[in-house]
Amino acid sequence: MVNVVGERFVDEGVDFRNFTYARFGRAVLEQPEGVAFQVWDAEGSALLREEEYRPDVVRRIAAESLEELAAKCAEVGLQSPERFVRTLKRYNEAVHAQREKHPEKAFDPAVKDGVATHPGMLELPKSNWALPIEKPPFLAVKVGCGITFTFGGLAVDPETAAVISEASRKPIEGLYAVGEMLGGLYYGNYPGGSGLTAGAVWGRRAGADAAKRANGSKGAARL
Fold first, then answer.
1. pLDDT per position as a tens digit, 173-218
2. What are phi and psi of 136, to 5 degrees?
3. Where are the domains of the chain?
């Protein structure tokens, strides 16, 4: 992944997708113009999730060479096609150099495979899943950052999901917060799917407590 001036800015292989997309989104937002280009060759693009990268979802920029790909990306905001090409070629060199040192390591998308770039060749390494980008056709997608939900939210009673009053620091009877409104769960990163899990867990607790109150019973729900 490179920014509009043709430079890599994250270790794309630092962790699995579900633990990086919030971090990478923040990193993209910090780049010039808040956008970046994801780049693959024929082997890499075959691994993409169709529901995220099919043509009706994203604009796919395809080319038969890195130079042609850079020129096409320049039409949609890439400011330095020359640096873009240099960055990718230098990355490829670092991939092959490390493969020569560790031919026993094999690419495996299901684990942190240790297939990395040579540590002494790049200022920013790729720690896992480092495949060369050299087999046409090449593919690029321009990406930006969007907001799913904030990490902040309301304080709640962990047993009932009742909102805690800022004045009294006690639960407010009959007022609940779950899902995206709930605070105190995340700091620094967000594991994919955990927002839905939190919504289900505290939604159930809120529902149970609300049902008890509706039936005239007070006290925290015990599930």
1. 999 999 888 888 888 788 888 888 889 999 999 999 999 999 886 5
2. -70, 160
3. 17-143, 162-214
Query: Is 17-143 a CATH 3.10.450.70 domain?
Result: no
Tokens matching residue 186: 């995340």
Rounded Cα–Cα distance for residues 183 and 25 (Å): 21
End-to-end Cα spacing for the chain: 45
Span 117-156, pLDDT tens digits: 999 999 999 999 999 999 999 999 999 988 877 888 899 9
How crowded is residue 153: how many other Cβ atoms within 10 Å of its Cβ? 18
Q: Does pTM top 0.85 for this prediction?
A: no
